[in-house]
Amino acid sequence: MNAPDFFDGGRRLRNSGDDPMPSVRNRAIPLNGFWRRVPASLMVVAALALSFIPTARAADNPAKELQAQFEAAKASLAAGDLASAESHYIDAIVLGLRQLAKISLSLGQTDKAATYLESALRLKPDDVETQLDAAGVWFRNGQVAKAKTLLKSLVATQPSHARARGLLGRIYVFEGDSDNAIQELKASVDLEDDFETGYFLGIAYLKARKLAEASAWFHQLHSTMGESAALHMLFGRAYLVAKIPQQAIPEFRQAIRLDPKYPRAHGFLGYAYLEHYQEEGYPQARQEFEKEVKLHPDEYQVQELLGIANVNLRDFPAAEVALLHAARLRPKEASVYLYLGETYAATNRIKAAVEVLEKYVSMVGNPEEDKLREASRAYYLLGQNLRRLGREEEARKALARSQQIREAKFKYDVKHIFDEKKSSEDAGESRVSDRVADLLGAGSAEEKQGTQNMIRQGLPVGPVGKQPATAKETAAAKQYRSFVGEILGSSYNDLGVMRAKDSKFPEAAEFFRQAAAWKPDLPGLDLNWGFASFRAELYLEAVPPLERQLKAHPDDSFIRQLLGLSYSMLEKDEKVVEVLHPFLEHPPDDAGLLLAWGTALVRTRQPGAAAGIFRRLLEQNADNPSVHLLLGKAYAQQEDYASAVNELSNASRLDPRLPEAHYYAGLVYLRQKEFESAAREFRAELDLRPGDLHTLYHLGYTLLLQGQLPESISLLREAVKAMPDYELAHFELGRALLQQGDAAGAIESLERAKKLAPEHDAVYFQLSQAYRRAGRVQEAGQAVAAYQKLIEANRLKKRESLEMDKP
Hints:
By secondary structure, the chain is an all-alpha fold.
């Protein structure tokens, strides 16, 4: 069909510029300070430290920068500079996706951030800043090798890129490769003075046991940054990361002197006491934990540590209070129930102990390697307390499970005793006790190795405290996300229009699909997307937007035609008939549409309506052989065999090599029992298409009806060999063999037909005859009984050997 040029002058395909989007500018105004809002309690760190996915030097006003790129694209488009417009649109999309990735990271949505950045890279794969953003997210998401490969490639080509070298250095810290970490981090700091990179350089020195260099470096950072509780907290954590708690203790003490209420300062100091003084550190640690929970009572990890300390000091009432509080804060954390069980058991509350210990083992299930020792102890305590309740069989099973897990832990330790990739200081196990291993270092329940997660994620953007795994999106963030979505939707749409004008319809359809993901209600988008998808022959993708467009504009005859043709290409014949029904009184003149419509009417068993459509088609396409072929099929279904033969003959006359014209003519003659004419047409079809198996079968069947058994059997054998699951061919071959006197061959073919179509009654009748001739009387009787049973059941749906349509 000759479609209007919807890409000419914007009459149909619309640029987003047709609607100037005043809301975009208005929404951007109150968001100017969105990226820069940082908690005041970390003024020193916030001054220089970047969040983990740093936008190397983010614009002071990201909304203004994004809007400027978008408006530059619109201006270039209006000026007819398409190359510049495309470049600005791509830059706007990439920038918007990077900004959305940053918002997602602030909410703990690393998978979503990765998706945004990977989309940006597909659009602009050589953009270095996007590559670095993506590498950072991959690193944070645990895809360390992927991030490292990209960063090494970047550093090789751009050795002076400070951010690339800094992030690569952090990966080396994470992997325990201190020498390479120091090299990359030092190079990064030399290129660009950055506090966060400098801080991790200090950690790298510590982990390499270059204590003098680390001390000097931290002193230099201190001189530069000035005195603050936040800075001493970071230094203290660095020493804990490196398992040098004796150096961490004075740092945390100094932080407390500067700010006695600094979040988690007392908690970290208590932890450092345990690391340094071991079991003797519990009294001092407990004092610090108590101070911390007075300041921050809902700090789960410190409440749990306080409970553990009290258990070790045999102060079970105090332990119970802390542990119950911890359980209320995080009821799905298993470990707290182990210590509650120990507390209840020590105070002779055996039933309560069993209850919480059973809860613990149920929650843990099959423990991971880092939980084996804890799980073994839990089963041991459970077994002992079950025994005290007289539940001996359950106790025996629990103790056996404890022993099994203990042995698994031993085997694991032996297997990994010489592992060097991660030293024990990085493994998340404290020297003081398995009970307090890395509890303060973990940022959330999911982060089992807090040290490594701090290296992956960077410095906190607030006080050195627990960051929620998934923060709640603020109203400002939602508003900014909507603002970016409008720009992305419009930019993708306009890129799609540009591609469509160049007849690059698959690319255009993809851009429109992306536009719909961001701004589904963009005016004109459904029309653009549906039309481009149709022209790209992506009919399945074209249908939804065309359906929506037609629903919104039911009088749009062109959209109705596009949708009908799309349904036709997907062979959704009922949908074709439904959507084109309003044209019934005044059908369009488009030959392609009429052909699709008539075909759908034929397939939905409406031959009368189909004939009317084809007659109209013939008025304008009298010399089109395909039209005559389809019209012949429509007449045949209507059982107007004379008209069918006439139209099929016309088709063959106009195009003697037209496929299927002779085939369908043969079927019509076969229906009229004109076997000689049918055979002639089938042979003519095979002359054109020697390998057509359905024609081969029907010729064999026709010859069988004429009694020409040898050739019939030969053709039917060829048919079943090529179509082993075609039941009719097996059935007719069985009949032919039976007539030839080959009872054994007939039985073989008929049994195969029975297996393929167990409800075909005629198969059982022919089988009974074949069994009887082979002397298998009992089986013959069974076949007759089955035949008689099916006769009534199949009375209304009895099948005939001839099929008008292909099987």
